[in-house]
Amino acid sequence: MTRPLITARAALTLAFAPVAIAALPAAHAQSASYRPLVSAEPLQDRIAYLLTLFEKSPEVQHVLFRDPALRAVRDRLVETRSAVQAACAAADATSCPVERLMLGEGEIETVASVLVRLAVSDPAVASLVSGHVRPSGRYQLHAHLSDPELLAAAWRDAARAINRVYRLYALGEKPAYPAIDGLDREAALPRFQGRLGDALAMRAALGSGSGYFGSVWSVYAVDLLILAQRDEAARYEPLDAGLNRTANHFARGLRWGRYRYSAILVPGNGLEPGEKSLSAIAVLRLRLAAERWRAGQAPLIILSGGHVHPNRSPHAEAIEMKAVLMKRYGVPERAILTDPYARHTTTNLRNAVRLLFRAGAPMDKPLLVTTSVWQTQYIADPGKDGLAERSRRELGYPPYSDPRTISPVEASVMPDLRALHTDPNEPLDP
């Protein structure tokens, strides 16, 4: 059962007093000790965390609900929902106009301007930003902004993320990597359109959309991901208190200065024809990582790889690697951080930084990557074909700096805290 956020500004201030937000530069106000709130929708928690913060605060919801401009947006969505549901349920329906449930750019900007005003004038909204939005690190690329501007930027990201789900998994827009992230069925097929209609009707039967404007719009994006069987982003939540609980507890007592590296990262490799659950190359990468760990170069090993290669694989590479690392190479669970979400080399590095930050690792200590020759070269390449440049194109930034080649199959990098930022373009691993 989830617990309400805090309904009074004083309680928020008390809960987050150790963060000392006002005393820190905005770009460094994220907190490794911050514990994210959870809603009844884990997918929303990961994809559009700001909406979860709105929903977990009755006080903020009340402020949003009574604002005339936001009420107008909500009323439009409620009216549209009924019309879309009726169109999708019609016996002769040839399409399901679910795109009408999306927010338009004008509506998004209307909400943004209201939030800027409320962040200045309303104590509950202001406390939400200083107590949650900023220390969460989820909107780290905007951390240099003032609190009102940060809230507006976080809202635009959240809105973009939800609308992106509609485009990918209702309208059939192609994702960046269609071979592993796509709908893999035609969005216009009558059978799929009928399933959309069923999803709308079932959600309406739950009585959703009775609260502030966002609940009318975001819940259907969650349903679209479930309908498309693309719930990868939340399959292992809560990750820090679940798969990584033992390692996070162990990390709290570490003397980091004793080690050359904060951790050893092992990226997944994907399956070759004939391989069933784990790549043979990944097994060899694990052997090298275990040897470096036994030599005392780092206290932790990070295993990174999601349900990819092939598309919709039932196996998460990181989970499979963990079993091998423990059974074959004898590395204890306390030394293993698991990232079962990464889908590309960019997010292997990005997600590793996130895990280290939340484990309390120093961000001024390098991370060692044990991998294949080609990937070592790829990480270290500063040119247009290297990982840093690809990260700029896809993430907007490289999640690391100072890449160095340690050996033909090992590279080191320095973590970059921009990696904490939630990516609104990738609903399968935001």
Automatic annotation (TrEMBL):
Region (Disordered) location: 385-430
Residue span, DUF218 domain: 263-375
InterPro entries (UniProt xref): Cell_Envelope_Assoc, DUF218, Rossmann-like_a/b/a_fold
Coiled coil regions in record: none
Record keyword Metal-binding present: no
Signal sequence segment: 1-22
Record keywords: Signal
Biased composition annotated in UniProt, kind: Basic and acidic residues: 385-395
Superkingdom per UniProt: Bacteria
PANTHER family reported for this sequence: DUF218 DOMAIN-CONTAINING PROTEIN, INNER MEMBRANE PROTEIN, PROBABLE PERMEASE
Protein name: YdcF family protein
